[in-house]
Specification:
alpha/beta, Urease, subunit C, domain 1, TIM Barrel, binds N-(iminomethyl)-L-glutamic acid, binds fe (iii) ion
Length: 418
């Protein structure tokens, strides 16, 4: 058994009691902490928080001094499209000159332009692109990372993306949560026969994904220009038969019943929600479905932010994420997302921290194991410079992380940190 004692910590944030797997509404506005305690771990699990004055070091223990720095729960980044090839900077310029995301997609750009690049890439090419992107998240204290497919849009290339994610998950020290997003948009070859593509998802892709155990979640993009509620319902009913949990991109540009379908189908989360009304936020009361907010998309596309405060007033479980992708949020900086959440969504720093740890871990279905610093959970945490967490949003986009620890092991350490 390997026992590690992390000591000399000024303050440990996110020390929830066991049994808490998410925080609803205003509950997320507090963040418990412990001052002058050390963290004892055994085989990667937190076994005790010991007051610094009472520590008696056992000879078998490895002792790591954190030099009076601050410890926070490892972040769960719960929504990314981190497997992609090429870039869409040309489209970004078109958007700056006034074109909308949907207009660009109608002209054959958007998701389909990344699809072409991904289809042309080999699994090795995609893996080589993905690994440094995962490292960027690790260096920001991310200990659980969700990654979606959705740029293959045929059986062979969707499986290629998911196999890339699976290979990466064996090479990196963090937990990777794979999500199948075959219903991202209609590929051009199926423009005229939508049902055939949906049949392909249900009869070819989902059985193969389940057979090779390539995904934990099935996601879809419900929007005027992509998939309609009845189409997503059919895909999700099939996915549920294969034991995949459900998530949904919805109400990004138009409210056409997606949120209501996501709640009815007990999705683990509904993501985006930039255009929902105050009335619609009330639907989250008592719902197990979390609202994943993506302020990077609103910034990058320069339009509405989801009504975060109304969602909190309606007692929703809210989480935050980058939506890192080449088209609508080419942002891999989680601290910039946090600043946008503070400035544009009026979230408090405690709400932001909880939305990026316990609640985003809940979205990924892993909050019984990670997302807070709790005895019995994994020792997944980040060591940061700042004692006052408000500095995170004040120091816009600056990475405060000096060490990342996953299951009791240091997996990243800034060169000049300790
Ligand atoms: O989450 N909304 C749809 N899908 C992505 C965008 C992907 C892309 O544009 O490549 C999103 O915003
Ligand atoms: Fe997305």
């Amino acid at each position: 058994m390997s026992t590690v004692l992390f000591r000399d910590i000024s303050i440990i944030y996110g020390t929830y009691p066991a049994g808490i797997e998410f925080l609803r509404g205003w509950e997320a506005n507090s963040l418990p902490s412990l001052v002058n305690h050390s963290i004892l771990t055994e085989d990667g699990i937190i076994t005790a928080f010991i007051p610094e004055k009472e520590i008696v070091v056992h000879q078998d223990w490895e002792v790591v001094s954190l030099k009076n720095k601050t410890v926070i729960p490892g972040f769960t980044e719960c929504h990314t499209h981190a497997v992609f090839a090429g870039d869409r900077s040309d489209e970004f310029l078109m958007k700056l000159r006034g074109a909308t995301y949907e207009e660009i997609a109608e002209r054959g750009g958007g998701i389909v332009s990344t699809m072409k690049k991904v289809r042309d890439a080999s699994e090795e090419d995609l893996l080589a692109l993905l690994l440094p992107r995962i490292q960027t998240f690790i260096e920001q204290g991310v200990t659980t990372l969700e990654i979606k497919s959705g740029y293959g849009l045929n059986t062979q290339d969707e499986l290629k993306m998911l196999r890339t994610i699976k290979r990466a998950s064996k090479l990196v020290p963090v937990d990777i949560i794979p999500t199948f997003l075959g219903a991202h948009t209609l590929p051009p070859e199926h423009r005229e026969d939508r049902n055939k593509y949906i049949d392909k998802i249900c009869n070819e892709m989902l059985p193969s994904v389940a057979d090779e155990q390539l995904a934990r979640f099935c996601d879809g993009f419900l929007e005027k220009s992509t998939f309609q509620p009845d189409e997503i319902e059919r895909i999700f009913e099939t996915a549920a038969k294969y034991d995949l949990s459900l998530r949904l991109h919805t109400d990004q540009f138009h409210s056409i019943g997606g949120l209501e379908l996501g709640l009815k189908m007990n999705c683990r989360s509904v993501d985006h929600l930039e255009v929902i009304s105050q009335e619609q936020t009330k639907l989250f009361k008592d719902s197990p479905t979390a609202a994943v907010l993506l302020p990077g998309v609103s910034y990058f596309l320069n339009y509405n932010y989801a009504p975060a405060r109304d969602l909190i007033d309606s007692d929703a479980i809210i989480a935050l994420a980058t939506d890192y992708n080449p088209g609508s949020s080419h942002i891999d900086n989680i601290f910039l997302i946090m600043s946008l959440a503070a400035v544009k969504m009026k979230l408090s720093i405690n709400e932001i921290m909880n939305s990026y740890s316990i609640n985003s871990a809940y979205v990924c279905g892993v909050s019984s194991r990670t997302g807070s610093l709790t005895t019995g959970k994994q020792a997944d945490f980040a060591v940061i410079e700042n004692e006052n967490l408000n500095q995170i949003v004040y120091n816009t986009g600056k990475n405060p992380v000096v060490i990342t620890v996953k299951k009791g092991e240091i997996i990243y350490q800034q060169n000049y940190s300790l």
